[in-house]
TrEMBL record, chain A:
<feature type="transmembrane region" description="Helical">
    <location>
        <begin position="6"/>
        <end position="26"/>
    </location>
</feature>
<keyword id="KW-0812">Transmembrane</keyword>
<protein>
    <submittedName>
        <fullName>Unannotated protein</fullName>
    </submittedName>
</protein>
<keyword id="KW-0472">Membrane</keyword>
<keyword id="KW-1133">Transmembrane helix</keyword>
UniProtKB/TrEMBL annotation, chain B:
<feature type="transmembrane region" description="Helical">
    <location>
        <begin position="123"/>
        <end position="144"/>
    </location>
</feature>
<feature type="transmembrane region" description="Helical">
    <location>
        <begin position="18"/>
        <end position="37"/>
    </location>
</feature>
<feature type="transmembrane region" description="Helical">
    <location>
        <begin position="156"/>
        <end position="176"/>
    </location>
</feature>
<feature type="transmembrane region" description="Helical">
    <location>
        <begin position="57"/>
        <end position="76"/>
    </location>
</feature>
<protein>
    <submittedName>
        <fullName>Unannotated protein</fullName>
    </submittedName>
</protein>
<dbReference type="GO" id="GO:0017004">
    <property type="term" value="P:cytochrome complex assembly"/>
</dbReference>
<keyword id="KW-0472">Membrane</keyword>
<dbReference type="GO" id="GO:0015232">
    <property type="term" value="F:heme transmembrane transporter activity"/>
</dbReference>
<dbReference type="GO" id="GO:0005886">
    <property type="term" value="C:plasma membrane"/>
</dbReference>
Length: 44, 248
């Protein structure tokens, strides 16, 4: 049972950390792109 | 139709959305493989399930730091010194730090189950912690003042020095007596003692995390490009304001 909490904890921690960073990256991109011109966003 | 309205906002494109969906699907399948379908290890028992996130995390960190060094080298050696290489280096460095942190924490949890302790000052663990601190320093150097080109030059030099730590971390288990196990799969030979589904789960984890890395690095590089553009715009506005002051 103790093993299960460590194993699930490892997976949850990994996905929460990655998910939080991914959310930060997407939100930052959206915030900055509001005032950006098309020339500043060559990928669009 | 207005082109500004038609163009998608943010750092995503059709291709990155496809990559994102593939990544989420592969992560979900990895969770099934790692937590449900794969068997327990003869020696490690169920704690082997931590390996399916621990090993891919350090794998991504190695790729990320390798990319940071490669992009830094291209930046310094190219004639036009395009800042896109610096931004890719910065994005990869940031992601690498995240994944080293994940690897350290999941490794620590695995260590508690296997060794009975969260941390030992073992060669592999200590060198990995040192790697983490070095790249935190790299990110701090990127945030020092100066122009974008000054930032690019000094962080590129640091990245080329920091990459020398990777072989030290990887071969630490052979160079010094270490509690950490030696490589199970990347042994240089063909004799891999691992159950088929466990091996598949591990490789699937490496592929899934690599897809995730690609998705993250593309988006982060684009948001760094926007940050640079906004800073340039602010600088241009400040210069213009000074000129107007001087004229009036």
């Amino acid at each position: 049972m103790e093993d299960a909490s460590f194993i699930i904890g490892s997976w949850v921690l990994t996905f929460v950390a990655i998910g939080a960073y991914a959310a930060f990256v997407i939100r930052r991109g959206r915030e900055l792109s509001r005032n950006a011109t098309s020339e500043e966003m060559p990928w669009t | 139709m207005n082109s500004a309205v038609a163009s998608p906002r943010g750092t995503g494109t059709r291709n990155t959305r496809i990559l994102g969906i593939l990544t989420i699907a592969s992560m979900a399948f990895l969770a099934l493989l790692g937590l449900v379908f794969s068997a327990e290890d003869r020696d490690q028992g169920s704690s082997v399930r931590i390996m399916y996130v621990h090993v891919p995390s350090i794998w991504v960190a190695y790729i990320a730091f390798g990319m940071t060094a490669a992009c830094s080298a291209i930046y310094l050696s190219s004639r036009n010194r395009s800042l896109i290489w610096d931004r890719f280096a910065g994005a990869a460095g940031e992601i690498g730090v995240l994944f080293v942190a994940v690897s350290l924490v999941t490794g620590s949890l695995w260590g508690r189950l296997s060794w009975g302790t969260y941390w030992v000052w073992d060669a592999r663990l200590t060198s990995t912690a040192f790697l983490f601190i070095t790249y935190l320093g790299y990110l701090a150097v990127r945030r020092l003042g100066g122009t974008h080109r000054q930032r690019a030059r000094r962080s590129a030099v640091l990245a080329l020095l920091a990459i020398l730590e990777i072989p030290l971390v990887h071969f630490s288990v052979r160079l010094w007596r270490s509690l950490h196990q030696e490589a199970t799969v990347a042994t240089g030979g063909t004799d891999v003692h691992m159950d088929g589904l466990m091996l598949f789960s591990l490789f699937f984890g490496l592929i899934s995390f690599t897809l995730l890395f690609l998705w993250l690095v593309i988006h982060r590089q684009r948001s760094l490009a926007l940050e640079d553009a906004m800073e340039n715009r602010g600088l241009d506005a400040a210069i213009e304001a000074r000129r107007e002051e001087a004229v009036s």
